Amino acid sequence: MTITLLAVSKTRPVSDVVKAILAGQHDFGENYAQEGVDKILALRALAQQGMLPESALLVWHFVGPLQGNKTRLVAEHFDWAHSIERLKIAERLSAQRPARLLPLQVCVQVNVSGEASKSGCAPEEALDLCQAVAALPRLNLRGLMCVPAPARDFAAQCRPLLHLRQLFMEIKARCPTLDTLSMGMSGDLEAAVQSGSTLVRIGSAIFGQRTNNKK
Ligand SMILES: *Cc1c(COP(=O)(O)O)cnc(C)c1O
After folding, report:
1. What CATH number did the domain enclosing 85 receive?
2. Domain count, the chain
3. Over the chain, what is the mean pLDDT?
4. Which one of 40, 141, 151, 173 is most buried, counting C-beta atoms within 10 A?
5. Range of 160's domain?
């Protein structure tokens, strides 16, 4: 089984992304739509100038909170969006996805930490949301994603991750296109791999601590 490594390059300069590309990295994650689009365009320009290896086929993942006024940037420039938590946002992304591009690959974000985390739909709502998203013409439903609340130890880290994995198996029985379990960050990477992650989103463990605490 393979696990995709997503390098989360939020707040990092284009030069850091270039270094990662030269080291063989293809998949990049961004949290802020405009910052992500600026990097996507800068890297495309570098590629057109022959400054990147020809084999560098980049895949851009939007992983941050998705507000209605940011959906167009994501729909027009990214390959994936991991943070779908409401149908309204999914409908906007589908309507705004340009016809010349492949459908946007999406994950539904689930709040598996209860009160401790605000982002994501409730676990009880996930199946309905997945089925509604799967029916949208310009989106491909690929999986589930979570950002659990920080936990003290390994066992406590695994609990919400195993919950998401269980939900993934249940929903996959009804939505067979599901193949992606997007979980695991620098702090809970090992717990996520042990809990069945297929895609880990790693920022600081690749690029170093973020100094610029941009909101
Ligand atoms: C910042 C971020 C990451 C990466 O976090 P690190 O702890 O730096 O590895 C992963 N996923 C999301 C949604 C993020 O916002």
Report:
1. 3.20.20.10
2. 1
3. 95
4. 141
5. 4-207
